[in-house]
Amino acid sequence: MAKELNEIRDAVHVFVEADPDELAVVNSRPFQRLRHIHQLALTYLIYPGGTHRRFEHSLGVMQVAGRIYDIVMRDENLSDVVREVVPGSRRKREYWRSVLRMAALCHDTGHLPFSHAAEKELLPDGVGHEQITRALIESELMKPVWDGMRPQPEPEDVVKLALGPKEARDLTFNTWEAILAEMIVGDVFGADRIDYLLRDSLHTGVAYGRFDHSRLIQTMRILPPAPDLAGGEEAPTGEEAERSTLGVVRGGLESAEGLLIARYFMFSQVYFHSTRLIYDTHLKEFLQAWLPGGQFPTDPEEHLQITDAEMMAAIRAAAANSADAAHEPAWRIVNREHFRVFYERAPEDVALYPEAATAVFAAAQEEFGAASVRYADSRKAAGTADFPVRDRDGKSVSSLALSQALQQLPEPRNEYVYVVRERREDARKWVRDNRRAVIEAAAQAEKEEDE
Amino acid sequence: MKRLQRAALLTELVEQMRAHESWCGETHLQKATFFLQELLGVELEYDFVLYKHGPFSFDLRDELGDLVSDKLIRYQPQVPPYGPRIAVTEEGEAVQEIYPTTLARHADRITFVADKLDARGVIDLERLATALYVTLDAPQTSAAERANLLRQLKPHIPEPAALRAVRELDEIRAEAEAIAA
Q1: H-type helices in chain B, by residue range?
Q2: Kindly report the CA angle at A309 between A18 and A321, in degrees rounded to 5?
Q3: What is d(CA A329, CA A327) in angstroms, rounded to the nearest whole number?
Q4: Are A178 and B52 within 8 A, CB to CB?
């Protein structure tokens, strides 16, 4: 018997449908905590509308992942080659659809307060929010939730799809599981990316993030990869199927271009905004001074007790108390006294030495004192925009071979060096006078060290 | 190893691969880097896992994205239907000039990998690299046993092809010992 569906109103998707098992996850403590985790950390200090939370984003990811699954698994959309890696039985297909949606719901439950900000420095080596997500999915807290479901999901299956092979390296993924994980966390068409671009765009008011996601999802397929050996071998069918991945039919290429262009704009305009990056730095400095041992707990129960609400109360208290060890960064956040940019990565400098910005940073620290200078880097590799496109003859073609837009798509990348507001003009003059000499000296020093 | 030092080695590997007629798409470079690190002992510090197309490093994929951002490499689109080839830019060649000693120290290893993998296609590379993956896990076992392990991981690879890949790998390993020593 079909499960009763509940409809949750949503600003992006109008409605998110959830069955009783999915509502049980929504009602769990790990998921409810996401109501208190800002999706974009302190970005609302620059874009005031950016106050949305991971709670509604995670619901949106479930909605999108479910739609992708339903489209790509339609009988008429499965080629003979791809059928070799797709479960044949209806029961198994229903199981994996359910696991996919559960994983989509849970994929962000391990996020620290204020989401991504400076996670690497605030957790023990080798631990990221994904490992906390995994611990929560496998926890005793979630066991009764999983046990009460029909079909009953294996927690390890939920972990695989929620984290993907990059973050669950100790688990072995077969091709089917890898494709399902791509539906959530994939670099090109993951539901996570589709939802966050649309949602962040809507809430920040940055219209560049919009794209035709309905058309995109409608044209998504599981496809064998495009060949990459000119005039070369034909892959045996089985091995071709093993390498299958998410792609689009030819008529969906423009909507895929739209997504990747939207991503470029959102990273340039929002995620890598210079003021947003320096607030992340001040927040990290506050947390390093405020947290016991300078790090967040990784124990699931302790993790569940800390949200943005507790953080913001602590920031306001520390800002008001000059004796507090975390006073200065807290004061900067509360009073908008963030450091100011005086140097920005420039192509002509990178041509001299790719580490030009860190060379300027190191020299500026000597000039103005380490306490007065900060560096922030937008590094987040997007990977290539290469994915298979099913051409009109049914064969897979590389997207980069077909799309001039994707061939020209720039990679968002920025680095900034900041100084305290009072020294900004001094720093600007100093960098004007010394930039080239500093960068060339750093390149030369590196060369001499190698010799 | 520093990030730029690794970049110098990777760009040199790309150039050597292309000089040895490799198509040099991402899959080709992934497998060549796996051989360079795991068989020849060059400490690039990438974590490889067994993925749907054999040994694969997500760290390396991220690093390639960084190298594109820094304009040290670029993906060259090809005529349909083929996937892109990786090429080193002028800026990438300039980075090599910063690390002459590092490059000289590893030159013979890079050339060895490029020569042994030459113009192989992705199917061949996946079999060979997966053969190395199982051999690293079970170095003392016979070729037949390792071929069996390979087929447990990749059931679609035919038995004769698995055995052929393991035997070919053993020949490459024997030659590599002299260079890696």
Answers
A1: 3-19, 26-38, 58-69, 90-98, 100-117, 122-137, 143-153, 159-180
A2: 175
A3: 6
A4: yes
* Residue linked to tokens 């080659």: A81
Question: What residues of chain B, 103 to 162, have a C-beta less than 8 Å from chain A?
Answer: 121-124, 126, 154, 156-158
**Phi and psi based region of residue A28 (left: phi greater than 0; alpha: psi -120 to 50; beta: remaining):** beta
Which of these, A276, A265, A263, A268, lies nearest to A385 by C-alpha position? A263
Q: Give percent above pLDDT 90 in chain B.
A: 87
Nearest-angstrom CA–CA distance, A361 and B132? 43
DSSP secondary structure letters along A354-387: TTHHHHHHHHHHHHH-GGGEEEEE----------
CATH code given to domain A6-272 = 1.10.3210.10
- pTM value is 0.95
Helix B3-19, helix B58-69: angle, nearest 10? 90
Q: Is A377 on the interface with B (CB under 8 A)?
A: no
A222 phi and psi angles, rounded to 5 deg: -90, 125
Instruction: Give me the pLDDT at residue A380, please.
Output: 65
Q: Which of A421, A176, A163 is CA-nearest to residue A282?
A: A421
Say if the Cβ atoms of B69 and A443 lie within 8 Å: no
For residues B147-165, b (16+ Cβ closer than 10 Å) or e, as one string?
bbbbbebbebbeeebbbbb
The domain defined by A275-379+414-450 carries CATH number 3.30.2010: no
Q: Is the ipTM of this complex over 0.95?
A: no
Quick check: A266 and B180 in contact, CB under 8 A? no
Among the listed residues B41, B72, B36, the one whose alpha carbon sits nearest the alpha carbon of residue B55: B36
Q: Residue ranges per domain, chain A?
A: 6-272, 275-379+414-450
Cβ-Cβ contacts under 8 Å, A411 against chain B: 65, 68-69
Q: Does B66 lie at the interface with A, CB-CB under 8 angstroms?
A: yes
Distance CA A62, CA A68 (A): 10
Q: Where are the alpha helices (DSSP H) in A44-154?
A: 54-72, 80-83, 90-106, 119-122, 129-137, 143-147
Residue A49: its pLDDT value, please?
A: 98
Q: What is the DSSP string of A264-313?
A: HHHIIIIIT-HHHHHHHHHHHHHHHHHSGGGS---SHHHHHT--HHHHHH
Residues of chain A short of pLDDT 50, as ranges, are 230-232
Strand-pair partners of A17 = A7
Query: How many angstroms separate the CA of residue A82 from the nearest CA in chain B?
Result: 13
pLDDT number for residue A230: 47
Alpha carbon distance A239, A387 (integer Å)? 18
The whole domain housing B32 covers 3-180
How many CB pairs lie under 8 A apart between chains A and B? 148
Q: How far is CA A292 from the centre of its chain?
A: 27
A225-284 residues touching B, CB cutoff 8 A: 225-230, 232-233, 235-236, 238-239, 241-244
Predicted local distance difference test score (pLDDT) of residue A412: 81
User: Chain B residues with CB inside 8 Å of A169's CB?
Assistant: 47, 49, 58
Q: Which two tokens stand for residue A256?
A: 């895929």
**Count of the separate structural domains present in chain B:** 1
